[in-house]
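Same chain as my last thread, 402 residues:
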Amino acid sequence: MNNASAAVASYNNTEYKNRVFVYEVVGLSQNNNTDSLNYPIRRSGSVFITVPYSRMNQEMRRISRLGGQIISIKPLNGNTQLEVSDTSKPVQQQPKENKKSKSMTQAKAKQDIPVNIYRPKNPFIGKCIENTELVGEGGIGTVRHLTFDISGGDLRYLEGQSIGIIPPGTDDQGKPHKLRLYSIASTRHGDRGDDQTVSLCVRQLEYKHPETGETVYGVCSTYLCNLELDADVAITGPVGKEMLLPDDEDANIIMMATGTGIAPFRAYLWRMFKEQHEDYKFKGFAWLIFGIPKTPNILYKEELEKMQQENSDHFRITYAISREQQNPEGGRMYIQHRVAEHADELWEMMQNPKTHTYICGLKGMEDGIDQALSETAAKNGVDWSDYQKQMKKEHRWHVETY
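reply #2:
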C-alpha cells in the first residue's frame, strides 16, 4: 500500500467515513488523457479535487494514471490534514492558485471511462456472493441475478458497460472456452454501495438442436446460472462506451428493453433514484418500456415498481406482456406495439436535445420500433431515418442488441 492509501486506511471506521475530502494534486500536465477534464490543467501549480470517502482509493488510482501526485488530503470543511508523502517523486513548492480562477472544489471531473482493465490472458478472479432467481412461479425459463466480489483487484466500471466471463473447461476442439460478454446490472458503486461488487442479469440459454431435436444449453449462461456461492469466476473488461449515461442530470432517458436487456437500465435507474449519489442527482424524466412474455418474467418487478411509486414525477414504466396482452390487431403485444401506441409522446420527447434513447435486448425489436417512429415522424414532415442519424451524431441514440 502506498503512503496515500495508508493515510486513508488509517481513518477507516471513524467519523471521516461519511465525509468529503479535498485532494491537492500536482503534476497533471495537459495530454490526451486529461484534455477532456472540465477543470483546468496547468503545467505547474495545484489542482484541488473533492472526493467522497467511499471513492478515495479509486480517485487515487485515477490521478496516478493521469501522471498526478497527491501532496495533501484535507476534510472539505475541516482543518486536519492527512499526512501524505511519496518518496518516488520529489515535491516542490508550487505557486498559489489564481484567486480569479474557478474553485476546484466546485468542479466535477468528467467521466473517466475504464476499458479492458483485465484481459482474457490475465482475467480478474472474483467470487460469487449472490445468485438468485428472478423469474417468478409460472414464468418461462430461468434468469439469475448474480453478484461478484471484486474487492481484491482494480476492476472499475460505469453504468452501461459490460464485462466478459470466461467459463471453465474446454470446447469440443479441446481449446479453452472463449469469453462471453454480459451487460452490467449494477451501478459503478455496486449493489452494496461500497464499490466492491459487480452484478449481472443472466438468462440460461436453452434451445432445440435443429437436427437432433435435443435440448442444448448455453455453455456460459448455464455455468453462471448454476454457480455456487464463494465460487471463483474469471472476469475481463470492462468494455463499451455506446450505452453510457449522459453526465447531464437534467437529461430525459427513454429505455426500451426486452428480457435481460433490462440489465443496463436497472443500473441507470438505481443511479437515478435509489442512490442519488453526491456526484449525480437526477432531475430529468425516465421512461422504461419493457417487453416480456408473462408477468412472472418481469425482472426486478418489485424494485422497479417501488422506484416508480416513489418517483412518479420522474419515472414511468410501460409493460408489453406478449402472452397476456393483445395489440390493436388482436395479436400478441410486443414492445414495438407499445412504442407505436405512445409514438407521439416519444417523438415529442425526442425533439428535446436533452433526451437520450436506449434500446437493449433482442435485435428483432429494432425494425418494429423504427416503423412505429417512422410513421409519427412522417406525420410531422420528417424522415425518420435522417432524424435517427442526426440523433446518433449527437450521441442521443444508443443501441445494444443481440
